[in-house]
Amino acid sequence: MSQRQLAMVINLDKCIGCQTCTVACSTHRLNHPGTDMLRYIWCETKPGEGWPKGWMEMGRKVPDRVRDYGGTWTFNWEEVYSSPVGTKYLHPLTKETGEPPNWGPIWEEDQGAGEWPNGYFFYMPRLCNHCTDAPCIAACQSHFARGGGMPSSQGNGHKKSLHKREEDGIVLIDPSSCDECGLCAAACPYKIPMENFEAGTYEMCDFCAGRVDNQYAPVCAKSCPARAMYFGYLDDKASFVAKLVNEYKVALPLRPDFDTGPNVYYIPPFIRPTTFGAGNKPTGQADIPTDLLRKYFGPGLDPAMATLKEHRARAERGEQSELMDLLIIYKWADAFTPLKVEAPVEPIEQGPQTGKGHQS
Amino acid sequence: MTKRTGEENPGARQAAAEAQENYWQWDRCRWGTHRVNCYPGSCPFRVYAKNGKVIREEISCTYPEFSDPDYRVPDYNPRGCQKGYQHSKAMYGPDRLLYPMKRKGERGSGQWERISWDQACDEIAGKFADIIQKYGPQAISDDHGTNGAGVLRGGGEGASTGFVSRLGGVSYDLNFLIGDFNPGQYLTFGQFQQAPGIETWFLADTVIALSNPAYGNIPDIHYILEARYRGAKVVAIAPDKNATAQFADMWLPVNWSADPALWLGVCKILIDNEWLDIEFIKEQTDSPVLVRMDTQQFLRASDLREGADAEQFFAIDSATGKPEPLPKGTLAMPFDYALTGNWKVTLKDQKQVAVTTVFELLKKRVAEYTPEKVHEISGIHPDQLAQLAELVKPPRKVFVFVNWNAGKLYHGDLLERSYCYMLALTGNVGKAGTGSRGWSAGAEYIGGSAVVGGMPNEVLESGNPLLHAMNMAQKIQEDYRTHFKMDPTMPPAEAALGALREGLRNGGTLSSPVWLWYHHAGYKEVWDKFLDDPNAPKKISQYAEESLANGWWKGFARPAKDINPKGMLVSGSNPLRRHRGGMNTYLKTMWPKLELIVVLDPRWSTTGLYADYALPAASFYEYADAKYSTPATRFSTFTDQTVPMLGESRSDRQITLALLKRIQEHLLKRGVEKYKSGDREIVVKELYWRATFGGRYGETNEDEEMLVNDTYNALGKMGWFESLDGEELTLDNLRKNGKAWLSGRPAWHASVVQNSDIVPGQIFWPFRDQIEQKVPYATTTRRMELYLDHPWFIEADEHLVRYKQAPNIGGPQPLRLTSGHLRWSIHSNWVASYEMLKLHRGEPFAFINDTVAKEKGIADHDYIHVYNDYGSFIVRAKLSSCTRPDQLVIYHAWEPYQYPNWMPYDGLLPGPPKGLHFAGGYRHYEYTLWNWSPSQSDRQTNIDFEKANLQA
Predict the structure, then answer these.
(1) Per-residue pLDDT tens for B708-745?
(2) Which of B267, B835, B887, B928 has its CA 20 to 30 A from that of B167?
């Protein structure tokens, strides 16, 4: 366990599935070779198999590059633009198979479950949970202990590529010493570490450690147009994340039964339309089955839902609720204190302590 | 674990290791935004470049907090979305057009030849000159679109309209090309461009979402979601359970076009329970206005006395029971108006007729809509109807969120008028957090309009033409009534629209595209053939011909029936995708007529691939310009030149100026010194001189930056914009702050119709003048019109709202096609970029109901063949239980070249307008720019589908 812990809260009652987090991350973090189909964050439609396909039930398997991730998509722009009109149309093919893809990071958008008119879905961004007891680190360490890994260009002298930073709990992969063994991906029940086949390394979200080192908030969270994301230190009682996670206990870890101590927390979708009976008679029952949410968010779900609903009822009566104000976020920057949400303007000289994720 | 070999690249490992270090290195950071016509936009990004290449952009999060003393609302940060966030990659993408290209071989052969700008301009200008000489200037038109909505240097309004206007050609009204009109709000308020600040949605007690802001309003929807945490209820009304409905307290799965029945049912409950804002109903609406029972028209002074005012209306004084004239210049009530009752009045011929009030008639109309009948028509259970009525009961503040669905739905006017009834009965207009919305934009165009319109020579020769143009606009606004000999009691909104109408009528350039479709593009026959509306008294062509014969389109029906379009400049637009039936009727009919098709675009569009010339327009980070402002956000956002224009691309304005210069040379060489466009004389040697403001703003980057500087500086001097820091508004100031504040009341029709002052830092909503100053509305009765007494509406039994069954469009097929904005593009901009393609399945898809799919033997991701009598297309199926069983949802705007055979869904949309919308000759039922014209419908076109056997 690190001295401090950074945490992210994602309000699923607000997330609209727009993938701005996904694209902001891609624009900022996925510009090096081999990252065409890599994601550090992406947003799934739930319920659904997710990405990689069926990750929640995958156990200790390493996801398959084509079957589970959908392969690397290529498109035929040049052919379309240089052929007679109407003859060739733009469509994806999987580089690995030459066939049209049948899975991908956002394959199940807006499909959901249920039966008309009682279908339903909600969105869930996924990224590294920066777990308190990260099984990926233990797996990496055992690999190094057995003689795996490579010497690190970062000169850390540690016997692993994966580590957790003492000062903020960020879990990092050192790409220079990773030898692509895949044990981290096998160990992670959330199936977050992803292989960069070109670089020969595993990669994943690092909470924008380099930005954090320079007091800038992670680019995904600060860019969320639905204002559904928060970021801050859990031991800072005034931070929005601490209030939501520890004080009101309405932000919950995903699949706490995986027992890894995730530090990404989700506020469950709690304002929902009702289902209908015969003749479209409204039943008054929320459309998402509570059992599904309990499966995702564990025993904290029921008290969290009760708290959220009670505070909203207060607001409806015209009473003050700090919790509802936390969900509103009157001033966007407040959700990230002490980190900054403004974009940097001046380039920053990289000293030895910044940008590389210094070692603990 | 097995190590994958053979793929590794040592450089890639190195790059992965160094990525974090390189992250902080850039040599240029500038403001940037994306001048696509997304509404309201206004997303200030920072753009970073290194060694002359853009490396990324980031949402700047620099909007100030509101400083309104009366209202606490969340700030605008972070404004932006995923589309803007990948432009740094898309701008270098494979669909980017970098050099002037000329087709080799036949149109659409796919064979292109790169040519020089000199050759391109010379050849194109020669051909335009040929067309002017052979067919006259009105054979030239532009199709300016939405991909480069730059105020001054980019896109349609500044560059392409100016080009066509200078030549005396025809420029089509963009709003009716795309169909973003709110017909029912227009009929009720006499205007549709009321645009409350997005922050006021937060202040509603009930938000009713009739569109899908989770897709179409990504940076704005948080105000609706956050309103729920202040205790507001959100209601979604939609045939399918779309993404927005997932966040609602209530979703009403309403049957096709049945919304009017639903709202009339709600109004019945409101009236039965007396849940009404009586004061508002009397003062602000036409409810007390007397209607003659014999003609069903309003009682007018001219009915009572020979020669009296035909627009003087009456109400009953409840104290005396006598009809008294309603004041025309104010909403303030000189006496108490009776709302209900029946009376007799004596006409000028001594005949006695029965009269009653609009409210009495409305009460009778809504009485038909019992909960049981509403259930039968709309599918909405009486319990839910009762819940909905409770949620709009006074004094709850109700905001109806719409985008521009209604303008694309055949009975969209009835849909909008029906919820306006609810707003009227409950007094939900003109207060923060109430009302509904249209779009408004472009106070900046007052400067640009100087290019489009004429400027006196002496102003061009000396002085500041931009400031002159703005002062002129201001003066016309101030003197509108005398300038155009208008009624002195006319309210400002109506006068602004009237002044614009008369100015444009004389300008001789603008036309609604309805006449292009009807007379030239083959739609007259298509509409009559593929619309089956048993409830319409006449065919579309009968309405259209009668409307023309009545002179209702004087000066606005272009090109004339006998002038065939021959040359078209397509600027940042994609007409083959956008016209309903674009790859069907439009391509088949228009393309053979056109001798010259020039496309000007930063990227390869389908239309570009079908063109004669494709000219590279520069993109958003490549020159300094601003995105238009709107009252909805009240900022003009600046985008700077972070890198030089890519390849040989140029600003849209530079391209059209270069063409104009060459056309002038060609014509003079051929001895053409003057020619006529209608009554207007075009002096050839002045073409370029006028377009460059007397040579002041030429084609160089420096000249164009000066144009931006001088325009904003003049806007600042007029008090219509303010800098963020109190300094003088200049290009340097925009470079510093990235944005400027819209302020006051710019003399621009779309600003004037707000009927409210814009105060920087404060929240904003329209119609405050009506509530606080009793300023009348821009309608015939000067009130919100719940009753329409235009004879066509009476004939069609739509003088009061009623439910009308949706017509059969496209054939008798049993299912309905619906659409809306795709999440992954702004129109077709970015739709083919790699980053966006990876956010879905990489190709067009249509949502169909999962149970129906199983019955038809269709599995998820199968290709399906979708068809009606008019056309067909092939698309991937995506199964969902949130899609209605009798529905297919396909979002736009995929490029036609993303579909097999390049046939998009638009190919089966015949797009009939509603015939009643040809109504004219009657106050606000008259066309002017962006206002009141028929436009193509597409929602609820009839279709069926089956599994297609197609291998990719």
Answers:
(1) 999 999 999 999 999 999 999 999 999 999 999 999 99
(2) B928
Q: Which two tokens stand for residue B548?
A: 């023309």
Q: Which region, left, alpha or beta, applies to residue A355 given φ > 0 means left and ψ of -120 to 50 means alpha? A: left
CB contact under 8 A, B17 and A153: yes
What is the predicted ipTM? 0.97
The CA distance from A342 to A344, in Å, is 6
Q: How far apart are the first and last CA of chain B?
A: 34
Residues B824-883 have pLDDT tens digits of 999 999 999 999 999 999 999 999 999 999 999 999 999 999 999 999 999 999 999 999
**How far is the C-alpha of B119 from the C-alpha of B107, rounded, in Å?**
19
Length in residues, chain B? 952
Alpha carbon distance B151, B449 (integer Å):
10
Q: How far apart (Å, rounded) are the C-alpha atoms in residues B229 and B233? A: 9
Phi, psi of B816 (to 5 degrees): -120, 135
**Degrees to nearest 5, angle at CA B815 with B813 and B819:** 120
Helix (H, G, I), strand (E, B) or coil at A265: strand
Both tokens of B354, joined, read 């029965």
Q: Which of A27, A119, A196 sits opposite B882 (nearest CB)?
A: A119
Whole-angstrom distance, CA of residue A275 vs CA of residue B918:
43
CA neighbor of B599 nearest in space, from B577, B584, B581 = B577
CA A129 to chain centre: 7
3-state secondary structure of B527: helix
CA A266 vs. chain centroid, Å, equals 10
Q: Which residues of A touch B609 (CB under 8 A)?
A: 81, 85
Query: What element of type H or E holds A49?
Result: none
β-strand pairing of A201-203 with A194-196: antiparallel
Q: How far is B238 from chain A (nearest CA, A)?
A: 12
Give yes or no for a contact between B866 and B943, defined as CB atoms under 8 angstroms apart.
yes
Contact A347 B26 (CB under 8 A): yes
Highest mean predicted confidence (pLDDT) among A236-250, B137-151, B439-453, B462-476: A236-250
- Residue A141 CA to residue A184 CA, distance in Å, equals 10
CB contact under 8 A, A24 and B89: no
Sheet hosting strand B290-292, strand order edge to edge:
B290-292, B352-357, B342-346
Per-residue tokens: B113: 């030849």
Cβ-defined contact of B3 to A272 (cutoff 8 Å)? no
CA–CA distance, B504 with B512 (Å, rounded to integer)? 12
